[in-house]
Every structure is written in structure tokens, then in C-alpha cells.
Design a protein that fits this description.
Elements lengths: L1 E2 L12 H9 L1 H15 L6 H13 L4 H18 L5 H13 L8 E2 L7 E6 L6 H14 L4 E4 L6 H14 L3 E2 L7 H15 L3 E4 L9 H17 L6 E7 L6 H12 L3 E5 L9 H8 L4 E5 L7 E3 L2 H9 L3
Parallel strand pairs: 3-6, 3-7, 4-5, 4-6, 7-8, 8-9
Antiparallel strand pairs: 1-2, 9-10
Helix pairs in contact: 1-12, 2-3, 3-4, 4-5, 4-11, 5-12, 6-7, 8-9, 9-10
Amino acid sequence: MIFKGKREQAAPPSTGLFGGLRAGLQRTRENLLGGLARLIGKASLDPKTLEEIEDLLLSADLGIEATTRLMADFKERLQRHGGASDAKALLREELVALLRPVEQPLEIVAAGQRRPFVMLVVGVNGSGKTTTIGKLAHLLKRRNLSVALAAGDTFRAAAVEQLKAWGERNEIAVTAQDAGADSASVIYDALVSATARGIQVLIADTAGRLHTKSNLMEELKKLKRVIKKLDPSAPHEVMLVIDATSGQNVLNQVAQFHQAVGLSGITIAKLDGTAKGGILFALAYRWPIPIRYIGVGERLDDLASFEAEAFVDALIGPD
């Protein structure tokens, strides 16, 4: 069985997930669109105007490194085209080009006969990790994959109950123990059960932890070792869930989690909040790890595969 991570059909601009994305990025879009319309609408883009465009991008949380790279390429293309008439289209193309390398939908490939594809989901406290797992389980089930969940966040009793609630909503089995139980034991039992029942995908929750706490990061390494005792090829996906409202701090999160457990994918949650949106560009430049999904709300369907062009269009409008 091979699942190639098919994309959802694009919704009309005013409805569906695209509409939710536009709404979530409304504040950033209004600032960028208004500023860009004023600046790019000039007959020529002099150095002062280009500097103002750079300031606009920085204010949207793109970060210094990504903004510097993008502006260098943008200026070069402006010179080649010899004018400002195509400036917005050129800027849009540069934004899309920066995100395109991380536009890599999740592929779920059978690990072997009766072995599930194991996803280990990690993140800091409050990142939206457990909610993302519930929405991801729903998305995969809609694509005719059998899914099971492991309540590995045993440090927070509410997390176990929250995952059980998502399991009930999705009609999916959840392996759980009492709060305070050994997380590795829970995930081990879940993998044994999923293998015995021929489940195709096992999604394992983990305790939210500060990326700066080395002892907690060591526990994540232990989880990987325990999983590998049952299946040396697992986990097949280690996904970090990021709160889009956290700004540039997420770059440090990625660095620490990637060093500890080797990330293979990232999901951006809470783009429906006060997120500036530009953090995706900073991530793509500094850490070109595939961005698998974006979340724009609390409903089951508010999760979709990341698409660079759709994201840029929601941010600054189509060409």
C-alpha cells in the first residue's frame, strides 16, 4: 500500500480551507497588500522604496535571513526586467520559489506486511499538537486508511482525555494508560496492538516539552529506541507541530527537536489566530524540512497539505 499524500481540491477563494487561510492571515495580508500596493504602484522602485518593501516583509515575520535573500533575488530580477510594472508578479514568484522546496506532501508507505506506518508527533506545550493529531487522523481516515492513536502524552491528564475525545469523534481506537504512566510503554503497547490488528497508520502523541530542557529531549530519544525494537524502520515520520503565533522562536524549536530526534516533517498550526504568516518563509530558508500540513481552525476539516502558491496567494493576493 502506498499513499502519495493526494491534495485536497482547492476551495473557492471565499470558502473552505483557502477562505480560512485568508481569514487567518487577514492582518498580515492587509498590512502587506496595503503597503505593497502603495510602494509597488510607483513608477520606479528607487532604493528608498525597496528598503520600505524590505521593512514590510520583516514586519510580517519573514526574518532577516530570508528577507535579505528574497530581496537580493527580487532586485536582480527587477533590473533584468527593467521596470516596476511587473514588480508584484516578480515578488510573488520569489515568495513562491522560497517555499516551493518545502512543499512536500506526506507519503505513507507500508512498512511491510502487517506493519503500520508509525508517526511520532512532537512539539512544545500549547503548540496544538494533540488537536493536529485528531484532524490528521480524520484526514487519513477519509482517504480510506485505517488509523490508530497512542496517547503518549502521559504527563498531562487532560491530553489523554483530549486524544480519547478525538478518537471517539473519528471512531478510531486509542491506546492509553493513566496519567503518569511511562510514555514509551504506552506507545510500545499501541504499536503491538496496531500490528496485530493490521492497522495501516499509527499516530503517537508525545508530551509537550520545552525544547530547552535536555532531560525531556532525552526522553524523546528513548521513545524512538523503544519503537525501533519492534520495527527497526520506525518511526517513519517524526513530525513537529509548530504554533504559528510563536514568531521567530520556532527556529530554535526546530533546531533542538531536529537535533534530538531527526525531524522529517513540520505542521504549522494556529494560522487562524494572530499569526503573521511570514514565519513559514523563515523556516523554509533556515530549515528546509518538508512542511506537511497547515491548520487554520478547530474543525475536523481544518487541516490540509501545504501548497506554496495557495499560501502566497492568501498572504499577498494572486498575481
